[in-house]
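Per-residue structure
===
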Amino acid sequence: MKTLPIPRAVLFDWDGTLVDTWKAIIAAYNITRIAMGMDPWDEQTARHNIRKSWRDAFPEVFGDRWEEAGRIYREQYGAINQQHIEPMNGAFELLGELAAMKIHVGIVSNKLGKYLRSEIEYFNWTHHFVRAVGAQDAARDKPHPDPVIFALDGSDITPGPDVWFIGDTGVDMQVAHATGCTPILVNGHSMKPGEREEYPPAAEFDDLPALHAALISIMTDENQTPAKARNV
């Protein structure tokens, strides 16, 4: 099994990693699909297919009508997102621990930036993140490296193994590999077949409390011997 390096920075994905917003995402997406004359997706299909940012995914799904579809989706999601959002188990505690450890923490999400930051504010979590990078905040979105570089801009930290990238999908593991960060998979139930092999995580945890326990072990071990994670 591989071991985890001591982190100088931790970058999180947002949806499905720190918060559960799937009800709102799927509802808004299916309203959009119906408006475009398409069949709605069931939850499993939606979770497997909604990965990319709006500007990357919608032209592929909706073709020439992607801008119209985007307007519908944004209107629908903006109307319901804060009614259907809750933190993932252990998120509050993990963010508090990282703050106490004075580790650089950021968000790299494919959610449109204004919605990402409004949801962060909803939980009063703004102070936890040095920078929250959403879709269209950088020149390109995940899995391109640009938002990771932007999330660390202004610090003395560059992408590398001492930057943990924590997410729940293959897109997150892909961007971690592309930037040389340590890829950590949490709640990885939506991984597609073959993604673990193509973009293998350095560590995989069932949930945030398990990740939190490993972080504490790493940071408090007097010999600085990194904790081992499962399935790596």
Remarks:
- The beta strands are 9-12, 19-20, 86-87, 104-112, 131-135, 163-167, 182-186, 203-205.
- Confidence is low (pLDDT under 50) at residues 222-232.
- The chain has two domains: 9-20+86-220, 22-83.
